[in-house]
Design goal:
By secondary structure, the protein is mostly helical. It is about 70% helix and about 0% strand. It has helices at about 5-20, 25-40, 40-45, 50-70, 75-85, 95-110, 115-135. The chain binds protoporphyrin IX containing FE. Protoporphyrin IX containing FE binds near residues 45, 48, 84, 97 and 131.
């Protein structure tokens, strides 16, 4: 059986999604549109957010999430971002991370022209350790 490198499959799909241009909103805009539409609680959390800066930060953070999957080493960046999201911070409840991933995959399916079921699995595998880390830190911060 051919070996699959899920980190690479995720990265390539992510790059295609970012590069995708169409009449409609681009990948990161589409992600936030989908994410906000999932629940008023989510939209409210971002009410005062500068979305331009937010999109750049999300873009950076996905690289750190993949890095965490590959090296399994928590970096200062991950710790700082977990703190921002914790109970005493923005209060991003652990359940919302599942909605976050679902929304990201929906946007990727729209924007990566060669998206497949296997690529969906690659997104899930590559991002799961980072999501587990963030969820676990919720009570701590
Ligand atoms: C693993 C998944 C996630 C990643 C990688 C991520 C990434 C980020 C990053 C990098 C920032 C900017 C932090 C900074 O201020 O420097 C941020 C801010 C924020 N995130 Fe997340 N996030 C994730 C999941 C979520 C979830 C599930 C929610 C809940 C709805 C959420 C809500 C927020 C809010 C409210 C902010 C602050 C926006 C502001 O500054 O106004 N995030 N996120």
């Amino acid at each position: 059986m051919r070996m699959k490198d899920y980190a690479e499959m995720f990265n390539e799909s992510y790059q295609r999604a970012l590069a995708f241009r169409d009449e409609g909103p681009q990948f990161l805009d589409r992600f936030y549109e989908i994410f906000f539409s999932k629940s008023p609680e989510i939209a409210e959390l971002f009410e005062t957010t500068h979305m331009g800066a937010q999109k750049t930060m999300l873009q950076d953070s996905l690289f750190y999430m993949r890095d965490f999957f590959i090296h399994r080493t928590a970096n200062d960046y991950m710790e700082r971002v977990a703190k921002v999201h914790g109970k005493a911070g923005r209060n991003a409840r652990p359940e919302l991370y599942d909605v976050w991933l679902e929304s990201l995959i929906e946007a990727a399916r729209e924007c990566d022209p060669v998206f497949t079921d296997d690529i969906e699995l690659a997104w899930k595998i590559a991002l799961s350790p980072g999501i587990t880390y963030m969820k676990h830190m919720y009570d701590r911060y």
